Amino acid sequence: MYKIILKKNMGEGVNLYEIHAPDIASKAKPGQFIILRVHGEGERIPITIANSDQKKGTITALVQTVGKTSHLLSELNEGENIKDVVGPLGVPTDIENFGTVVCVGGGFGIAVLYPIARALKEAGNRVISIIGARRTDLLLMKKEMEDVSSEVLIATDDGSSGIKGLVTDALRNLIEEKKEKIDRVIAVGPVIMMKAVSDMTREKNIKTVVSLNPIMIDGTGMCGACRVLVGGKTKFACVDGPDFDGHLVDFNNLMNRLRFYKKEEAQSYECHNKEHHG
Amino acid sequence: MADNQGIKDMIDTKDTKTAPASGVDNKERLKIKRVGMRNQAPEERIHNFEEVPYGYSPEEASIEAKRCIQCKKPFCIEGCPVNINIPAFIKLVESGDFLGAARKIKETNSLPAICGRVCPQEDQCEKVCTVGKKKDSAPVAIGNLERFVADYEAAHGNINIEVTGSIDKKVAIVGGGPAGLTVAGDLRKMGYDVSIFEALHELGGVLMYGIPEFRLPKEIVLSNLKVLENMGVKVYKNIVVGKTFSIDELMEKKGFDAVFIGTGAGTPKFLNIPGEELSGVYSANEFLTRVNLMRSYQNEKYDTPVKRGKTLVVFGAGNTAMDSVRTGLRLGYEDARIFYRRSRKEMTARIEEVHHAEQEGIKFEFLINPVRFIGDESHTVTGVECQRMELGEPDESGRRRPIPIPGSEFITKIDAAIIAIGTNANPIVPSSTPGMNLNKWGYIIADENTGKTTKKGVFAGGDIVTGAATVILAMGAGRKAAVAIDEYLKTGTW
Lengths: 278, 494
Ligand SMILES: Cc1cc2nc3c(=O)[nH]c(=O)nc-3n(C[C@H](O)[C@H](O)[C@H](O)COP(=O)(O)OP(=O)(O)OC[C@H]3O[C@@H](n4cnc5c(N)ncnc54)[C@H](O)[C@@H]3O)c2cc1C
Ligand code: FES
Description:
Number of helices of chain B: 20
Radius of gyration of chain B: 23 Å
Shape of chain B: globular
CATH class of the largest domain in chain B: Alpha Beta
Number of strands of chain A: 17
CATH superfamily of the largest domain in chain B: FAD/NAD(P)-binding domain
Mean pLDDT of chain A: 91
CATH superfamily of the largest domain in chain A: Nucleotide-binding domain of ferredoxin-NADP reductase (FNR) module
Distance between the termini of chain B: 18 Å
Structural class of chain A: alpha/beta
Largest sheet of chain A: 7 strands, mixed
Number of helices of chain A: 9
Order of helices and strands of chain A: EEHEEEEHEEEHEHEEHEHEEEHEHH
Strand order of the largest sheet of chain A: 12-11-10-9-13-14-17
Bound molecules: flavin-adenine dinucleotide, FE2/S2 (inorganic) cluster
Strand content of chain B: 15-25%
Largest interface: A-B, 44 and 45 residues
CATH architecture of the largest domain in chain A: 3-Layer(aba) Sandwich
Oligomer: heterodimer
Structural class of chain B: alpha/beta
Shape of chain A: globular
Low-confidence stretches of chain B: 1-21
Largest sheet of chain B: 5 strands, parallel
CATH topology of the largest domain in chain B: FAD/NAD(P)-binding domain
Radius of gyration of chain A: 18 Å
Strand content of chain A: 25-35%
Mean pLDDT of chain B: 92
Helix content of chain B: 25-40%
């Protein structure tokens, strides 16, 4: 049993959970993830570790309420327990002094990006961050990102902060107008965003790392549910990733694989809502 | 070796030479026909996940036990990877002492209810049974009897195991499959402080996530796990050794005096053909884990989804392939087939499973090799292109190598494909354990008789050493390792 120490609504159906899991907290590195199961009949879902606190023995996860499992999780309160949490899984993000690194985050991907940006800065990189959201009030962790970046560029759909447009517009601007010399791009967020970023940097020949989130079951390389196509080769995201070279990832395949159980999931969610709220 | 000594003792004991208790002579015994197990009817069982055979009644078991002629030289004992004293237990069955028979089996096999169900008896004890060598005679149904005895004990006796001492040494078991569970049980019984670390949320390894309910009811596995818990074995689930803790940390920081690694074969092989990434193409491990461990076949209660459809093709012909195709049938795939690139003779599955699959209407097609999967615009599989093969010269496994027949390609429309062509070593533990040597396939190098690896204090056994094998071999390796760990911890010599 893994106790929820703190739960915070971050808006847009996203909750932050601070979970007591000292063994995982003492090991977790930026870019790694956990797999959790809310209850004894639940499914196993992967969630990126947004932060970990060795002293408190906690890890932080941000979860958007989209289906039955995230909904069940959102119904748990502080002091209540998650049935199973296992981790830290996957290979940590490659942290070195690359020079200038641009960290691109969208939506609650920013929360995952933050510890990576911080580690990159600590490793001596000049970090430029580009973060995006629909509106200013939905923009997560702006202050934290500012603390670890020499520059933060913002893109909002309605133009209420930064530029009006997408993170890729800000990135293009950075490359083409400001002629910034970029050694590496790290993109974390919705698949469609990671794809757009990778498509752009491929043109410009800038090494780009993306963090993939396919369907997983065990998270240890046993089942192959998490396989992704990278450079035409099958890779297991749970053990070979979750970080991969964005220029080699087949994002269309990933998006389609993520959609495969949509119907079953919707049915399960509907049943759940009927039983509990209807 | 202790085990062989055991066989000799048995052979020399007087009672194997005397006539059996009931005084039936061998001629009479050989006249008795092998008693088959009654099964759930195929047309019924394809719609449920309940176990296929019902098991013997006490009467049936007694009749079958009479078929054993109590050989002076019982080859069956040597045929059994853990050297169960088979004639002795069968004799106890014949005399009606079913609980005594269970105790006899448990002298060398702690999980008979499981082994009776999943061991390939036709390649082991029953293969060398003298009765089976006689003209028109089938071997004694040793597996069926083992299963009966274990089930009888579970229903009428006490399956708990007593801990005989208390030894102030800590042993960590990595992986809760048959190998790890056996080491845990044996060492705890001697009095060691034993902890199991398991990556998943349930113990059992393949017994829980791989082998389906209709072949091995999970309740049986769970009741055997309960026995370990009652003995005081500590269980830590959700711990991926190599990630949450390393082997070195277990020994240096957590105070374990020895470690046993039984992490299984691990990671599924794929065909490496185009289209394999399509949705609807699964590894057998994924498909079976969804259904067994995550119980998705009971979708009113459990959250993990599984797809259903009409046509399913499974590639492979081992136990995993049989389990996958029969599971698919039970989920509602009406047309569930096996495509195998070799011929019927080379199939590696237990005979009983092949037989049950055929009764259930599974179609087997041989000498067929897939070349690509075909998908629709949503990247979901809709077909598979295969080519026909013919058998050429024997390969390194001694089986005739299949070679493609040019121009024989054909397309089959499918809703799902399952790839059950074997596994590779899982790298998580090996790659995080310096000083422990691996063979060229990535499996851990360990001494066959002791399980000792090249790293001091670290033992290994089961599929992570041998590559995918069997439950009983994993248990046998665990048993030997337990003896060696005890010796190492008592003497300190490596
Ligand atoms: C579908 C299927 C059907 C089979 N049918 C039969 C049959 O009928 N008869 C037969 O004899 N054999 C059968 N086998 C083979 C048999 O199940 C295996 O040979 C046997 O289970 C091996 O036992 P093991 O203990 O070595 O490993 P496993 O049973 O694989 O158990 C390994 C355990 O270690 C855990 N683990 C892995 N990595 C880690 C880690 N890093 N940290 C912590 N824990 C970890 C795993 O989660 C698992 O629980 C079948 C196999 C499959 C897949
Ligand atoms: S989630 Fe099972 S192999 Fe990656």
